[in-house]
Amino acid sequence: MVKKYQITSFERLEEKPAKPVTKFGGQPDWLEEPLWPVSEEFEDRLMSFVGQIVLDKGMLGNDKDIIAYVFLTHPENEDDDVFDLHMGEWGSGKHAVIIQPDGEHTCETKNVKEGPCLFDEDGNHYEYIPILEEGHDPDFINQKDFLKMKDPEQNKYVDQIYGNKIGGVPLFFKGDEWPEGDWKFLLQMSGWKLPFVLDLGNKGQLYAFITSDFKQGGVLIQQG
Question: Which domains does the chain have, with CATH numbers?
Fold first, then answer.
């Protein structure tokens, strides 16, 4: 079993909290010097801030409090058509996860405190707190073993790992794409039924990962 925090709903943040919280939209609450990622191949375009995940000590096995900041090359408004078919590939340089404190990163960054962020269908920029329900996912089953399972077993497994969540195990749409190396699963989000626009392509799903030493992160997008 793998610990997870299922996102059951979102609440709009009305007042700035006294300390950083897990949220989507708005601007990052940097713990250290701002490190805003730059998207490769897009003429120094800043990535859009998707959200920050506050991992209190022990949430995913981390030995201290950290924040993971998730960024995507993403439309800055409803008229911005930036997505391409290769946008979601692991290691594309078009998405990033920045870890603070004491994180490491391989992408180009700028010392910019604020930048592009998520918007809703009316073009407004709000912050949303996810309502979390602690639970557990079953251990990850690779595609080869999954295909050997009977339909009721497959359906049960999918139902258990489906949905937006922090931690747990990924529900891949198009084959197993777990990054090579020692990575933990950080975040799963679908691009629909959200209070903000999250453009992940055709029925896309976002998967974020973090190294087991909690120093680096990365993003993969699969389309349904």
Answer: 2-223 (2.30.320.10)
